[in-house]
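Sample pair:
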Amino acid sequence: MCCNTAGQYNETGLDMLQQLNLSSNRMSDLSQQSFNGLGQLHTLDLSANNISNVATDDFYGLTSLQTLHLDMNAVVKINLEGLSKLRELSLDHNALTSSALVGIRNLSSLRTVNLENNEIRHLADEAFDLCPAVDSLKLRHNRLRVVNANVTSSLSLKHLDVGYNQLESAGLAVLAPSLPPLESLVLDGNSLSAIPATLLNSSINSLLELDLSNNKLTSESLFPIIAELRTLQILRLDKNLLVTLPASFAQSQLNSTLETLSLRNNRLGQQTLSVLSAFSRLQHLLLDGNEISEISSKPFRRMNSLHTLSLSNNRITRLYNDSFHGIERTVIHLSLARNQIGQVEVGTFSSLYYVRRLDLSDNRITQLSLPSVMSQLNYFSAARNLLLEFPAGLRSTPLLLSLDLSSNRISRLPRFDLFSNNRMQLIDFSNNALENIDDMRYLGSVDVLNLSRNRLSSVDAAILNRTTTVQLLDLSRNRFVRAPSSITRASDVVINLRLDHNRISSLSDWTASTVYRSNLEKLSLRGNVIRELPTSFMSAVRASLTELDLRDNGLTTLDRQLFDDVPYLTGVLLAGNPLDCDCRLAWLRQLALRVTVDKARCSSPTDVIGTLAICYNVSHCDDIDHELYNITHDICWQDDFELTTTTSPGGVTDSLALIVGLSIAAAVLLIIVVVVAWYFCRRYRRRHTPRSANGDTSMTHGITDAYDTMAETDDIQLETKA
């Protein structure tokens, strides 16, 4: 753009533009008054560019600009005077220092300023000068030790975020008198060990949100101050040193105002729930990562508005029929993962009809009962427990998105139509002891149906009869000796099929649907004992197949005709087969011109063992197409080089071993030569060195001889080089 742009914008109609996004380009220079003529523009996004300097004239003509985003640049200097209508300014992830903030001044309409992730160490008195309307200031992830009271007192602050700085309690005490009544205060991640008693005095009747997470606060120093607040709705105290909740906390005004309370990753024990039972307006209660061992005495009976209850990673061992009394019809998200729950009474979850997310994973549950109809359930996980059977009672989950019962001890699935009006993302029964899954039906569409690592040897013909689509069906690591016909006939339904690491020896009875065209794109048969690919198999899958994995089987050769008409094939994996690289397999190099073939190697004849199956010498073959003689792949040249450095069983290449051996021998020989030379030189000097009158060797004369000898040696070496 050039500086004379106003006319251009008028001609093209862009002068009426209101929003402009120029993020993620390579802009570095804004000095051309490129925006002159965009008088109606109110939002400009210049994030993720290479801008380092922002001057007043850069935005000349933007008389209506209200929102400016300059995040993720390299801004070190800024001056925005003249943008009289600017209300929101974001400079997250730049390189601004303390002195640069002086350039944010004389912006009478500015209300929101985001300066997160910069290099700011202090706020100069001139920062935000003549910006009286600023009510939201974010300074997270800087290097502040104190917050300048002169600056905060000149603003109209309601929201102050100084999380993850280097603030100290003493500095906060100085700040306290100048703080206006705040609505939100964020001080997380500052390693504070105490909160000044006066810090919140001005906000007792206005503060709605307080975040003191990731500090070093104790119960004794914290709760007497918090208990004075009268309007607080959101309180976050995660990752501090809290051990108990004092009884006075339950008797404070907060028990009727708090809606969100987060106390994750502290050291709170069993007494916690009894204290919190008085908080009747709570909607979200997060207690993960504490030391709570039991849910008893109906602790939630007054929390008739509770939507989220998270108690994961505690020490709970048992759930009772009345553990969730009072929140049965309100709780939406319930997490009890990573506890030590071994016993769940039959009625524990019997009334949780409206829960949407239920997580019981990583416990020791052996039996589980659920309501017959869970009409709102989206996500359910009881993975990594000790369940012996599918959860009793459950019969209908019309909104299910994910069901995870992996890594249990379930041996049989019940008669159950697993149906959802949604497209299911995951059904996972992997790593169980399943021997029979014939009674369960999967209705609708499923992204992933995982039945791997079980004991299946057959699958009933009707299992996928009413399934629309399965993006991935995983039957790996079971006990199939043949590909189950109920699955092969569903090739119009299954897109990606894995039958790895079974005991399949033959594909001769692979049959496709007689009615529908195959949609199977990816097929993995790795780690079986297949010795040949029958024509019927390839005929059944060729119409849609894109990737075929046959690694680690017993194939010795492949028939060219099987791959002649597979129009969408992009990859074939054959490594780990005992390939016989004779003339019959020479055609494989031609296939590799249009399809990715992996680094499968020859196992015979002896003269080509270890050679890539698309690279061995076929010059002796008389009965192959002439063009095959001239096909050479780049990978073959690379492989030839690698073969010259083929690794030995010990893990060191032969060439490397030879080089190391020769180097060691040369070093030893050199040491011997030096020692012998030194010995004879020393004897020579002793015989020819003149004696002084007293019979002692002259030190001066000896040193001179030594340097003379070195000089002579250097001269000889120089002559030799010359």
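DSSP finds twelve helices and 32 strands in the chain.
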